[in-house]
Amino acid sequence: MEHSSYISLAIYFIAMLAIGLFAYRNSTDDLSGYMLGGRQVSPQVTALSAGASDMSGWMLMGLPGAMFTMGFDALWIALGLLLGALLNYLLVAPRLRVFTEEADDALTLPDFFSKRFNRQNGSVRMISAAVIILFFTLYTSAGLVAGGKFFESAFGLGYETGLLLTVSVVVAYTLLGGFLAVSLTDFVQGCIMFIALVLVPVVALQRFSSGAEMLEQAGRSIAPLSESFEHMGLLAIISSMAWGLGYFGQPHIIVRFMAIRSVKDIKVARHIGMSWMLVTIIGALATGLIGVAYVNKFAPGLSDPETIFILFAEILFHPLISGFLLAAILAAIMSTISSQLLVSSSSLSEDVYRAVFHKEMDQKTMVTAGRIGVLAVATVATLLALDNNASILSLVSNAWAGFGAAFGPLVLLSLFWPRMTHAGAVAGILSGAVTVLVWSQLPLLPNGQTLSSLMYEIVPGFIVSTIAIVLVSYLGKAPCQITQAAFLATKAKLQQAS
């Protein structure tokens, strides 16, 4: 790796830290500023920060790697993600923005669940906070694995060294600037990812005389598109598209909807966010497909399919451009890690520490508690990430399913079904999370495999959680009048905004 590539990465690191310092000086006076940017985030920043924090390192490493190994079967995952993200913008975003403000200005998702049922420290708050901390620690470790692999593959550094470099920079700017720093860095990182995922497949394709030759070379390793659709069974297609269900329950994504400056801005954010997502997903899939053809034609050797983007960045571009493209991978990794750290630390400080110990702390102390939470989650995730044999896509899929099943039905029904009760919410979280863990971790099949080999665990988890919420809610008493009033106020504001 030449010096110019190192210079590009150094500039990127400095820029991220500078943004963190800027945010530190402008938005961390109180808890609302640290956790939600004072609910004054623009639609442009909202859209790209939601996209960048969503896509993470798997966009430039995991998804191209999936296309490399699975072939056109990976298209179903992409389609499910696009549909899920669109429905999230249409169904969740506007109602959550208004409802969280009506619910006594809830700052975190567990806080909203608790206030939604008029229970300041209800069990739903503690349980949902525990689920967030559990699955986000796993999710964060997936990002750190990607960071370690990145530095190992691109720079020849030791895996542990790369892991520590990644976590150090992310923790630094997240500690400094909180939500505003995370959102602004995500915006910049989203722009970098967009350029990279357009540039790499376009340049890589130029190594072939035509698109037909590229597809011919790729066809030596993967089945044609028509055969792929034929050999996939219904369960496999459902499992792949079910990734889209996860959007309704991802705290690090939907917290962006809580922070946007007004409900009227959500339409603009949706248009920007979905356009960004469509282009970047196509670019990631194209990188994997062209990567198969490139390896078959030129035989450079590739031990890890999840590093195909890194291979292209190193061999197709001038070192200065290579440094920029490698920074795109770091951007994808860091954008998600920082969002997850912030949401996890918010739950630790706001939903666990203050709720359990009933501490009445001033705003400055609460912000300090949030920063301590960032360090705590980052430390545990780093220890978990020391196992560098784990697949990035596999780690992400487990955490994504956990959130989608535990929170997805709960978020939707909280916003659209006034009859849901506090007990129903608790039942939904527990049943969804436990179903995902049992389905994905226990070797229940005769051959020692888990049930995930038959169907992605988010599907049974989502179904079980929904049924549990509805049954338990109908068996209990109707919610209080305060909940009904919040629903009416939310509906009125949405009508006024439209």
TrEMBL record:
PROSITE patterns xrefs: NA_SOLUT_SYMP_1 (PS00456), NA_SOLUT_SYMP_3 (PS50283)
Superkingdom in the source lineage: Bacteria
InterPro entries, alphabetized: Na/Glc_symporter_sf (IPR038377), Na/Pro_symporter (IPR011851), Na/solute_symporter (IPR001734), Na/solute_symporter_CS (IPR018212), Sodium:Solute_Symporter (IPR050277)
Alphabetical list of PANTHER family matching this protein: SODIUM/PROLINE SYMPORTER-RELATED, SODIUM_PROLINE SYMPORTER
Keywords: Amino-acid transport, Cell inner membrane, Cell membrane, Ion transport, Membrane, Sodium, Sodium transport, Symport, Transmembrane, Transmembrane helix, Transport
One Gene Ontology biological process: proline transport
Name of protein: Sodium/proline symporter
Gene: putP
Reactions catalysed: L-proline(in) + Na(+)(in) = L-proline(out) + Na(+)(out)
Membrane-crossing segments per the record: 6-24, 74-92, 124-142, 162-184, 191-209, 229-248, 268-295, 307-333, 368-386, 392-416, 423-442, 454-475
Similarity annotation: Belongs to the sodium:solute symporter (SSF) (TC 2.A.21) family.
One CC-aspect GO term: plasma membrane
Tagged with keyword Lyase: no
Membrane topology: Multi-pass membrane protein
GO molecular function: L-proline transmembrane transporter activity; proline:sodium symporter activity; sodium ion binding
Cell location: Cell inner membrane; Cell membrane
Entries under NCBIfam families matching the protein: Na_Pro_sym, sss
Keyword Metal-binding: no
